[in-house]
Amino acid sequence: MRTRVWDDLEDSGVARFPFPPHGRIPNFAGADDAAERLADQPEWEAAETIKANPDAPQLPVRRRALRDGKTLYMAVPRLRDEQCFLELDPTELAPEEYDPATTVSGIGEYGVQVGPEAVGEIDLIVSGSVAVTEAGDRIGKGEGYSDLEYAILRELGLVDDETPVATTVHERQLLEGGGGGGGEDELEDEDETGGEGEGTVETEPHDVPMDLLVTPDRVIRPASSRKPTGLDWELLEDERLAEIPVLKQLQD
């Protein structure tokens, strides 16, 4: 399914830098418009603190967050440090620093690295997606860090069932079907990506469903789905526990 979406974005000319779109959260034409549409939603307006992914298509989202006076958090790559979040406080930055500070390379210079205990309650999460069903089932790159970051925040009581989770995508990343979390659902023979043949999106209890799907053209609010309630320790292998200090800290 990921390959179908990546191929379609490239073949249709929708993909934007960095190239190729494969193996990453793909950037797309209209990402700025999707960010503007997200910023028009009541969930955005009510949020004071936003946790966002660091990928290219959500760069306009991160910049808009600072311009709107919202504190922004991003995870340290692969959660490799005990202080596993980077904080950008717009009151601590000059307006001309907002753009460079929200890039992958710039946040290390302008952001303040903090541990989970220093992170305030999160009002809105923005996730990047390779694809997402209209029922809110998200397909990421396949490494699981987005869901793991959510589980850590949930374990610490910084998010709950009422915390909205949004994604900005191109229309071609939207897949018909999906079950809104939990179980399997067949997609239509011809989905939004133009690919032929049936596909299956399987979700597990640790997968985080999306509450807001925002494209350059519209907003979809899937029916509510149950969110993970924290870390599932049985799924965490010793190797991952050793690689991610905050997990060891929480386990202890």
UniProtKB/TrEMBL annotation:
GO cellular component: cytoplasm
InterPro entries: FTHF_cligase (IPR002698), FTHF_cligase-like_sf (IPR024185), NagB/RpiA_transferase-like (IPR037171)
Organism: Natronoglomus mannanivorans
Residue span of region Disordered: 16-37, 172-230
Domain of life: Archaea
Protein name, per record: 5-formyltetrahydrofolate cyclo-ligase
Biased composition (Acidic residues): 183-201
One Pfam family this sequence matches: 5-FTHF_cyc-lig
